[in-house]
Design goal:
The chain is α+β, with helices and mostly antiparallel strands. 21% of the residues lie in helices and 30% in strands. A hairpin with an 8-residue loop joins strand 7 (112-115) and strand 8 (124-130).
Length: 163
């Protein structure tokens, strides 16, 4: 399985393997092991809502101790890690995904997607998939980002949240 397979499957279904919005944090941690909680959770306790737990590049937002959002954070150029549950047999991978590459893979998989006007402005663009309502946000690289083309938009984050 490749990163692109994971991204396309997530965009189509809104799920990452067994991980889905609405499941309990305890159930997610059964699959993933303990996550690294946001500093606000450490300071205020586990009942504070809306802050993420991280497993490398995987982020789960938590509300009322249930998963309210799932996201994969990518950065232009460097490698990123994801848990084996999400991307088997890969400790680290190249996190550079051009917008054109992802949209072509979505088209090939028959995954409907549209420009997400709310998050398309300035140096970033965004798409929203149907029917899963997964949002992918792309941005132009910074001067120090090591990417093949400085003038192309690259994936920064792909996520879904409960309504």
């Amino acid at each position: 399985m490749t990163l692109m397979n994971v991204l396309v499957d997530f965009a189509r279904t809104g799920r990452l393997g067994p991980l889905q919005v609405g499941m309990s944090l305890a159930e997610a941690e059964e699959h993933l092991g303990p996550g690294r909680p946001h500093p606000a959770i450490i300071m205020k306790g586990p009942d504070i809502d809306g802050y993420p737990y991280h497993w490398g590049g995987l982020k789960l937002d938590v509300t009322h101790r249930a998963v309210s959002g799932i996201g994969i954070d990518l950065w232009h150029g460097p490698t990123v890690t994801l848990p084996a549950l999400v991307l088997p047999e890969s400790e680290a991978f190249d996190a550079t995904v051009a917008r054109e590459e992802l949209t072509a893979a979505l088209d090939a998989a028959g995954c409907e997607h549209h420009v997400h006007d709310v998050l398309t402005f300035g140096r970033q663009s965004s798409i929203l998939t149907r029917p899963a309502d997964v949002c992918a946000v792309f941005s132009l690289p910074g001067r120090d980002d090591h990417v093949p083309h400085q003038d192309r938009h690259y994936l920064s984050v792909i996520y879904t949240r409960s309504a």
